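Homework help board

Subject: predicted structure for assignment chain

Our instructor gave us this sequence and asked us to write out the predicted structure in token form, then describe one feature. I got the tokens but I'm not sure how to describe them. Can anyone check?
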Amino acid sequence: MMTAPQNSGRPAKAGQRWGRALAGALMLALAALVSVPALADSCSVPGSLPATRMIQVDCQVDGPVTGYVLALSWSPAFCDSAAGQRDSNDFQCRDNQFRWVVHGLWPQNFDARGERCSQPRHCQATLVDAGTVRDNLCIMPGVQLIQGEWQKHGSCAFDAPADYFSEIQQLWQRIQRPPLESLAQGGGIRSAAIKQAFMALNPGLRSDDMLVQAGKKNRFNEIFICLDKQGQFRRCNGNGVPDHVVLQLVQ
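My token output:
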């Protein structure tokens, strides 16, 4: 079980005065936005939900887990994509309104190198029960998304779906998420500004603990936040969008 993260006390990198200035400006902007109503999420779960179905196994790796990646998606970008327009995503993209949602919590072997099949994956083949699905739809808005994230990822570090999604709920409550639509300028936002906005709301979180991700047409679509096994923020492996890049923000 993860514990609340503590400030790592790592020294700031030299030569990043522009980053500190940007952080200060964003902290002031975020403080000002506290009194400004932001676009509110809305979520209503229907009385009847489809049953979960097993997903296809692409690769199976029962490897060591040294930490986690929490993937937070920007829902407006997904809903504006071809996948978001599918009938199967009506709950997320037409019946309700979301900004940030959880894509998944992915057990990682941070010492591994290579593609996804080098990471823990598909360790158990069990279905998520209807009660757990219902309890989590408003932060992970898809029945098969919930099933897929448990089967592909959660099953490699947790004994049961309820344990996995309880951990996700705790992280959702603890890690604060910025109102990006209020920070974008002219429909665009710099990769560094997204990170700085998270840092301003989450003490101890540093730039290299996050990877910004973009999709087609240079659109921001999600951010990866890296955690060790105790839930403390840690440096990510891999590559994200460089800090200087301005991304399109779908609203």
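Reply (TA_rk): Your tokens look well-formed. For the description, you could write something like this. Residues 209 and 235 are 4 Å apart (CA to CA). That's the kind of observation they're looking for.
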